[in-house]
UniProtKB/TrEMBL annotation:
Class of enzymatic activity (EC top level): ligase
Domain AMP-binding enzyme C-terminal: 473-548
EC number, UniProt record: 6.2.1.3
Keywords, sorted A to Z: Ligase
GO molecular function: long-chain fatty acid-CoA ligase activity
Name the record gives this protein: Long-chain fatty acid--CoA ligase
PANTHER family tied to this protein: LONG-CHAIN-FATTY-ACID--COA LIGASE, NONRIBOSOMAL PEPTIDE SYNTHASE PES1 (EUROFUNG)-RELATED
Domain (AMP-dependent synthetase/ligase): residue spans on this chain: 32-423
InterPro entries reported for this sequence: AMP-bd_C, AMP-bd_C_sf, AMP-binding_CS, AMP-dep_synth/lig_dom, ANL_N_sf, ATP-dep_AMP-bd_enzyme
Transmembrane spans: none
UniProt-listed SUPFAM superfamilies: Acetyl-CoA synthetase-like
NCBIfam families: PRK05605.1
Amino acid sequence: MTSAEKPWLAHYAPGVVPTVAAVTESLPNIIDRTVKDFPNAVALDFLGAETRYSELGDQIARAAEGLRKLGVKRGDRVALVLPNCPEHIAAFYAVQRLGGIAVEHNPLYTERELRHQFEDHGARVAIVWQKVAQKVLDLPADLQVSTVISIDITRGLPASKRFAMRLPVKAAREARGRTWGPLPKGAIPWEKVLKSRRISDKVPRPQASDIAVIQYTSGTTGTPKGALLTHANLISNTLQCQAWIPDVKRGSGVVVYAMLPVFHAYGLTLGLTFAMSMAARLVLFPAFDPDLVLAAHKKHPATYLPAVPPIIDRLLKRAAEKKVSLRGVRVGVSGGMALDTSLIAKWEAATGGVLIEGYGLSETSPILMINPITDERHAGSIGLPVSSTEAKIVSRDDHETEQPTGEPGELLVRGPQVFSGYWKRPGETAAVLEDGWFRTGDIAKVDERGFFEIVDRIKELIITGGFNVAPSEVEEAVVALDGVQDAAAVGIPDPHSGEKIVVAVVMQPGAPFDPEAMRATLRENLTPYKVPREIVRLDELPRNMIGKVLRKKVREQLLHGEDQKA
């Protein structure tokens, strides 16, 4: 098969177009059009508290003016350090209205992790979850974060839930502790920003080619860096999602569940852009809790439920335990890691809907491929390239030579959703973009029908629970521990998270080896999903002739039980 051939087009669902229109507008137009066309439709559902599109539009307009008065202008980076909540959506679009660049962060990052990213992007304004705002305020002065806006997400909850959290009982105290923190000194409350008048139409809007988001990713080399996504990239991917479901019309009562964090590329596109473009009810969950999801399902079953396999599995098990029917979920979309075919069967039996697997990367906004919503969907594959997307399998040694059908090689892709490069990293950008083709770093193969399958990864990223983890970042934290001489982090297959992080260490002579104490210290410097599940001891790490640790060899040793666990 050559890149000129596109057998997958014959297997698109009826009505799916081969191409989407070229994008000439920016993200604020998307939300403004929906506000105008469907002002009374529910835009956001936050654990039962509803925000209509007219209300959301007003909040965005006022927040944009508030940020403008604080000095935010076109091209400025604005850090968002927020969980899923209504304010996250309003803040994101307020930044876009000004032509600013939203830099998404995981709010559970440690101070060390946040510092590395702030050092890279240099944002001077941050909009932050109040519970973790102090971490941003405590960043070193040389980072020049001049303005921290604090959001108390409990204000967006229904009155009954806010009251319950104030009750003098243990469960209420624990719930409040998970979601609330006092307003730190030096932070500006979000409510003050919203007291501004609506932004003037005279304030220029961004262009389609402007950068909208810096999405941090471990990329194809394993080094965390910021992928630059333009308004055109994100809107193109939204149009591609819309094209994949031609029978679902905008404003027709679509319900999208945001169980995945919208600071993640997958959650961002399906939640922040696709849902808003469809005038959907976006059901927001601050963190995945199967009981909260089941409660929401009873009222408003999902038309689209984006997830990763561990979430799907947990939701099925909890529904069975509580004897709650999942009937009514129309389409489950799985990404982030391989989807076991047995899970597909369980899900479709429980819901009466379909579960389709897709594939993408932060650098591609992120969706590149997805299975058709027809009987032709191919369990075990990542599906077909979406509209306006080209893909080819090339030799790992010669990117000009395309592999025959069924033969593995590196997957290269091209389309309007492909990013424009990495922030301040021209060399690494050039290494992955070749004549418009993006090197995914994944080894794949394609069958005669055009269905693609991922078979291996060139890059050494660990994908755990749908999140990409750079081994080098984990290793850096482990080597900093007392007594550790060397370390290698690898991903080991795990039925619950796709891969679990296991670190092999070489200890300094005479140093004690206490894996649990080491993991406890690592929790202070790494986000929970980056903390290794296991730490094992080796006498030495395998290396190549120039001294580079061979992680693949380490992984093979651990898989074959050649480690020395404590």
